[in-house]
Amino acid sequence: MSGCRPADWGLLSSRQNGNGGVQQVRRSANYAWNGRAGRLQINAIAARPPFMQSLDSMTVRYEEYVQALVPLEAMDPKVFIGGEDASQKLCNFILALALVYNDFKVVIVGHHAVDTVEPKNLMVKTPEVGMFNAVRIGMFRLHAGIFRELFDLIYNNADVLAEPFFSRLERKLTSEGRAHWQALCDIASSRPKDNPELKALLLVRNKVAFHYDPAALFAGYRMSCVDDVTNPPLVSRGNTMQATHFFFADAAAMSYMSEAAEQDALMDILCGRSPLTHRINVALYELVTKFVAERGFAWKTASA
Q: Burial letters for 111-147: b for 16+ Cβ neighbours within 10 Å, e otherwise?
């Protein structure tokens, strides 16, 4: 199966070729990647772009994620209620970071859960293959969008980062955690044109992830369903949501992501060659857990 490799939350990993380099493309009769032209011909249902084709084959079952969780602990509810030591806005910010951490993990679990139902033949045009690819591309869109939302969260809370309590919290981080947090802050404060990763995430988030840009989607539609005459727009047209899916819309989003969104930078992020996921894993975990300790609240075993 071509799925997400578990490392640092199930960090996506690219396949290595025989020469030790990264094999980014597997050619088939249904699609071809032209690196010089930056062009991907996409079958509206069957083919997947390089950042989906190049994933290593390793799947973690949902049950394994559940079994890895340690027993529950409880906290005093007042931990996220502001006081003299920490403002309510700072408490809100840390609470948001905890949700971002969870959202990244949920997306990775989602990748793996979908991998367990991968059709045997991905190079045919069937509703089964189309639905599988639709869920996979949807997970990638959410994945990229969450990255960008985290950077917005950091950027829009500069006053929180300047609070004395937060400065004290930063000093409590390990050297690794502090370095990773600083790297995330540097990305959040940079301009997209100066940072290929940020530019890639911004394009995906603003066009096809958390926002819907009609013109961008049409550009993807033209590339996937108009310019390639072998790939007509496809749909399963039933009488219910369960029986219906507009596969041509997935193809449009997929094509736009492959064409417009800084392909190399985006691929590095989603396939695990970027250090971003590891930075987020370490930095956010330490900030949330050390925030609780720094406020003087203890962990205690949760009652059944």
A: bbbbbeebeeebeeeebebbbbbbbbbbbbbbbbbbb
**261 three-class SS:** coil
Name residue 202's beta-bridge partners: none
Cα–Cα distance, 301 to 73 (Å, whole number): 4
The CA R_g of the chain, rounded to the nearest whole Å, is: 21
| Tokens of residue 56, six digits | 């290593």
Residue 241, exposed/middle/buried by CB under 10 A (0-12, 13-18, 19+)? exposed
Q: Which residues, in sequence order, are bridge partners of residue 28?
A: 31
DSSP structure string for 108-131: HHHHHHHHTT--S-TTS--HHHHH
Q: Which of 70-84, 88-102, 268-282 has the lowest mean pLDDT?
A: 268-282
Q: Which residues contact 265 (CB under 8 A, 6 or more apart)?
A: 196, 197, 199, 200, 274
Tell me the β-bridge partners of 31. 28
Asked if 86 and 31 count as a contact pair (C-beta separation under 8 A), the reply is no
Query: Which has the closest alpha carbon to 173: 80, 288, 83?
Result: 288
C-alpha dist (Å) from residue 62 to 12, 106, 109, 268, 299: 16, 11, 7, 25, 27
Segment 263-280, tens digit of pLDDT: 566 666 665 566 778 888
Other beta carbons within 10 Å of 206:
16
Domain ranges of the chain: 32-301
Query: 10: which residues sit within 8 A by CB, 6+ positions away?
Result: 4, 60, 105, 108, 109, 111, 112
What predicted TM-score, i.e. pTM, was given to this entire model? 0.74
Check residues 11 and 299 and name the one with the higher pLDDT: 299
